[in-house]
């Protein structure tokens, strides 16, 4: 069953088209992440689903009902914002129950829902505290709990972790994933943080300029990006790129800076055509040491810079006229100015057409 369905959605601010003929179907129980840089339209789309913005065209359906012009409180959603927006004069229990009291929910039902939310979010010892006595992570748990007590089918999260420090973000990210596994509600989550997207999502929608560029699982988006923008946006460090030309006389090759790289083992979307293009390779897919012997292509280079990261090491060097980064083990002994041999396999490459920048 489709939980949320968006058909031909447009949103204009004056002459500016912010969302452009968007179509999106979200199955019941899915965790969908809207990911993109600032200004791509992800929060705008979420606000349209929530009913906080009036759309210029198209339709929004939630659980089969057309809610395009329904008020936010009529849509059966719970929303968690970037700011906690807690009432400072109320206790945690008061913040959780306030909306239910206004909706005239019976006292016994309110107590039951507040107790359930507190148990799920592990904030039972905090119920009598006020927001000023809570940490940032605890406040965000309360904000999530305020949505949870509404007992809705669809939860909307608008960058809920962006105000927290790195450790709290990591901790609460786990809590949100655990919450989804426990509740199995549909969740739509907006973020610009690709780590959040990759770890939380069943599917990711990569957005740019009011359009969805790619909608797929984290694995597919990471390993088979649909175009050069997605390939460059996903991954840290980002993908290395080489400009060159695909030749199909005999075995297919990618030719760049005088080097011919065999690409017979590359998984083409359709039969390869000769022409200009881009070749991309992720830092972790470049191999060193004994693994080079089995690589489709290898060459020697000199280490320019080493960045120890603890769990791994980022190594900068130049090959085929391009400065690249490769990821090595954190215990690697490689140093600046070392001579190393590197290689990679065609199956790990991403090839893009030069003009459209779409995956080949």
Structure description:
This protein has eight helices and 20 strands. The mean pLDDT is 93. The strands form four sheets. The chain has a six-stranded mixed sheet, with helices on both faces. Strands 13-12-11-14-20 form a five-stranded antiparallel sheet. It has 360 residues and is α+β, with helices and mostly antiparallel strands. α2 (92-102) crosses α3 (107-121) and α2 (92-102) packs parallel to α4 (136-148). The protein folds into two domains: 2-224, P-loop containing nucleotide triphosphate hydrolases (Rossmann fold, 3-Layer(aba) Sandwich); 233-353, Nucleic acid-binding proteins (OB fold (Dihydrolipoamide Acetyltransferase, E2P), Beta Barrel). Helices cover 24% and strands 35% of the residues. One of its GO terms (biological process) is carbohydrate transport. It holds the Pfam family ABC_tran. One of its GO terms (molecular function) is ABC-type transporter activity.
Spell out the CATH superfamily of the largest domain: P-loop containing nucleotide triphosphate hydrolases
**How many beta-strand elements?**
20
Major β-sheet profile: 6 strands, mixed
Number of domains: 2
Order of helices and strands: EEEHEEEHHHEHEHEEHHEEEEEEEEEE
Number of helices: 8
Stretches where pLDDT falls below 50 for ≥5 residues?
none
Tell me the name of the CATH class of the largest domain: Alpha Beta
Radius of gyration: 24 Å
Tell me the overall shape. globular
The helix-and-strand class reads: alpha+beta
User: Can you tell me the CATH topology of the largest domain?
Assistant: Rossmann fold
Residue fraction in strands: 35-45%
Q: Could you estimate the helical fraction of the residues in percent?
A: 10-25%
Distance between the termini: 33 Å
Sheet with the most strands: spatial strand order: 6-7-8-3-9-10
**What is the CATH-assigned architecture of the largest domain?**
3-Layer(aba) Sandwich
Instruction: Determine the mean pLDDT.
Output: 93
């Amino acid at each position: 069953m489709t939980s949320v369905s968006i058909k031909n959605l447009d949103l204009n601010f004056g002459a500016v088209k912010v969302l452009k003929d968007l179509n999106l179907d979200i199955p019941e129980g899915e965790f969908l992440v809207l990911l993109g840089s600032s200004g791509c339209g992800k929060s705008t789309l979420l606000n349209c689903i929530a009913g906080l913005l009036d759309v210029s065209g198209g339709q929004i359906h939630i659980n089969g009902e057309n809610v395009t012009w329904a008020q936010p409180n009529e849509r059966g959603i719970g929303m968690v914002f970037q700011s906690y927006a807690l009432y400072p004069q109320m206790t945690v229990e008061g913040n959780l129950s306030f909306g239910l009291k206004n909706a005239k929910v019976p006292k016994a039902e309110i107590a039951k829902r507040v107790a359930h939310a507190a148990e799920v979010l592990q904030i039972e010892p905090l119920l009598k505290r006020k927001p000023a006595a809570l940490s940032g992570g605890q406040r965000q748990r309360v904000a999530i709990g305020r949505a949870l007590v509404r007992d809705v089918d669809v939860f909307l999260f608008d960058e809920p972790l962006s105000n927290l420090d790195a450790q709290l973000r990591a901790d609460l990210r786990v809590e949100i994933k655990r919450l989804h596994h426990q509740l199995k509600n549909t969740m739509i989550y907006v973020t610009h943080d690709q780590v959040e997207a990759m770890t939380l999502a069943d599917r990711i929608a990569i957005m740019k300029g009011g359009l969805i560029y790619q909608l797929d699982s984290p694995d597919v988006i990471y390993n088979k990006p649909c175009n050069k923008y997605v390939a460059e946006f996903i991954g840290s460090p980002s993908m290395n790129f080489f400009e060159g030309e695909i030749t199909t006389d005999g075995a297919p090759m990618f030719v760049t800076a005088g080097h011919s790289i065999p690409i017979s083992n590359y998984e083409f979307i359709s039969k390869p055509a000769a022409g200009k293009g881009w070749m991309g390779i992720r830092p972790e897919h470049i191999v060193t040491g004994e693994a080079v012997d089995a690589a489709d292509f290898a060459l020697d280079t000199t280490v320019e810079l080493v960045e120890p990261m603890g769990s791994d090491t980022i190594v900068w060097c130049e090959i085929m006229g391009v400065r690249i980064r490769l990821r090595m083990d954190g215990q690697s002994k490689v140093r600046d100015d070392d001579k190393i041999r590197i290689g990679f396999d065609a199956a790990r490459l991403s090839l893009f057409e030069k003009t459209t920048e779409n995956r080949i």
